[in-house]
Amino acid sequence: MPKLRTLAVVAGAALLARRAMRRRIQVSPLWPMPALEEPTSGRPRSRALRLLVTSREEVAEGVVQLRLEGRDLPRWEPGAHLDVVLPSGLVRQYSLCGDPQDTSSYTVATRLVPDGRGGSREVHEQVREGTELEVRGPRNRFPLVAASSYVFVAGGIGITPVLPMLRTLPDGVEWRLLYCGRDRASMPFLEEVEKLGGGGRVTVVEGVPDLGALLADVPDGAAVFCCGPQGLMAAVEKRFPGVHLERFTPRSSAGGAFEVELRRSKRTLTVPADSTVLAAVRAELPDTAYSCEQGFCGTCQQRVLEGEVDHRDELLTDAERSDSMLICVSRARGDRLVLDL
Fold first, then answer.
1. How many other C-beta atoms lie within 10 A of the C-beta of residue 65?
2. How far is residue 180's CA from residue 90's CA, in Å, rounded to a whole number?
3. Measured on CA atoms in the order 306, 309, 315, 319, is the torsion positive or negative?
4. Is 189 left (phi over 0), alpha (psi -120 to 50) or beta?
5. Angle 40-167-247 (CA atoms, 0-180°, nearest 5)?
6. pLDDT at residue 21 in the model
7. Which letter, b or e, does each residue of 212-238 get, where b requires 16 or more Cβ atoms within 10 Å of its Cβ?
8. pTM for this structure?
9. Which residue, 206, 97, 218, is CA-closest to 155?
10. How far apart are alpha carbons 149 and 90 in whole angstroms?
């Protein structure tokens, strides 16, 4: 009888622990990190959702569109994106390109990048109708702001956050779009974009655009939005310093070499100029958690005990940046950092 009582107590304690952990994870999907109160990238993180892929369609050469269905989904505004957890556990960010008023489904699209880091290949090769995916969000760091007129520049798959903006612009507002791609067959949603821009508001360029000629007469006060390859965004930003950009890759993780002390592990590492803190740490501590490697998901957040950080992420709040960093992209401003690892 005492043995049965002991078993009952142990089973009860385990059940309570599982329930407590489930509640904690719901508050912060990236547990044991704290839930962010005010992310610089948008609204507070919502809890993770499990959605079903009910449609998979090739909308251009190398571009797949997915419809993810659920019930009473959080509303979103044009420019928002989802964090999608792929079957392998990789986390990738995809712009929402469907109808913001539809609370039964989300629509995203992704281009296959054969020499990429594996996320797009996994979507194209493994995600099918009937696949269940975990998503977090929506979050919006690329909102449509009020302006007297608009200029949009999209390169290839960069049309995805722009498309909902075009659909929701007020009647009578002046706008135009420069849409660039390798060729027309590779440019998703091209037919709809050209219909929306009836009257000469859409310029389609196959190949590298001449921005100087095509954007020579942007009116004063126009809001400029750009999403696309890094080279295109850099060129537009150079021409229009106040441009609104949507990035799904970090600006750069390169910089000067520096040292990182792992205080609890009693180790000191050198981070080369062409590598990352994450790579150096994982060489010594291979179980260190990470996912997106782009400064978006927050999985690799670590506490900083000493040193000044060059923050290059797209996620942490100003308060969190005072004592932590995302080690996949951020670096030291000086020659040394001390981490609580």
1. 19
2. 29
3. positive
4. left
5. 30
6. 43
7. eebbeeeeeebbbbbbbeeebbebbee
8. 0.73
9. 206
10. 39
Which residue ranges of the chain lie beneath pLDDT 50? 4, 6-45
Q: pLDDT tens, 124-147?
A: 999 999 999 999 989 898 999 999
**Dist CA 74 CA 22 (whole Å):** 21
Please tell me the distance from the alpha carbon of residue 98 to that of residue 116, in angstroms, as a whole number.
25
CA pseudo-torsion sign 139, 37, 27, 322: positive
How far apart are the C-alpha atoms of 316 and 298, rounded to whole Å?
A: 8
Structure tokens at 151: 């200029």
- CB distance 123 to 56 below 8 Å: no
| Token pair recorded at residue 335 | 């020659």
| Residue listed under structure tokens 């571009």 | 63
pLDDT value for 117: 77
H helices of the chain, in order, are 2-27, 119-126, 159-168, 190-196, 211-214, 230-239, 277-284, 318-321
Residue corresponding to tokens 């520049």: 153
Longest dimension (CA), the chain: 88
CA dist 297 → 51, 120, 230 (Å): 19, 17, 20
pLDDT of residue 254: 66
**Strand pairing partners for 271?**
258
